[in-house]
Design goal:
Blueprint lengths: L2 E2 L2 E2 L6 H4 L8 H11 L12 H14 L3 H18 L2 H8 L10 H4 L4 H11 L6
Antiparallel strand pairs: 1-2
Helix pairs in contact: 2-3, 4-5
Length: 129
């Protein structure tokens, strides 16, 4: 199994797909990395030579922020939003949807949908006890 940035990528899949197992790399970034490295995207991961894996690893390290560094940056950005007290930061702090998603009844409650279903069964569907 090829190991890139501390993650084992699948051996039997095409390298174009295998690279997407790295947090922060999707299909477009995967294709860009492979074209820069001069590797056929349809090649299977287990068919790559050590030299090709090294080229991929080098390109990723130089040009992309992935895995732990990316997660850390995202968390710092969310914390900054909460610290300055902007609308998005307040929504993060309260655990509510941030980007205008529909707020169904479960977005306001703590607990899971199953917890609320059990509560409804006890109180009755109309909410009167």
């Amino acid at each position: 199994m090829a190991r890139i940035a501390g993650v084992d990528i699948p051996r039997e899949k095409r390298i174009e797909i295998s690279l997407t197992y790295l947090f922060g790399i999707g299909r477009p970034a995967s294709n860009q990395i492979l074209s820069r490295a001069g590797i056929d995207p349809n090649k299977r991961t287990n068919m790559l030579s050590e030299e090709e894996v090294a080229r991929i690893r080098e390109i990723i390290e130089q040009e992309h922020k992935i895995e732990g560094d990316l997660r850390k940056e995202i968390n710092v950005n969310i914390k900054r939003l909460m610290d300055i007290g902007c609308y998005r930061g307040l929504r993060h702090r309260k655990g509510l949807p941030v980007r205008s998603e529909d707020e169904n009844e479960f977005a306001h409650e703590e607990g899971t949908a199953e917890d609320l279903d059990e509560e409804e069964e006890v109180r009755g569907r109309d909410g009167k006890g």
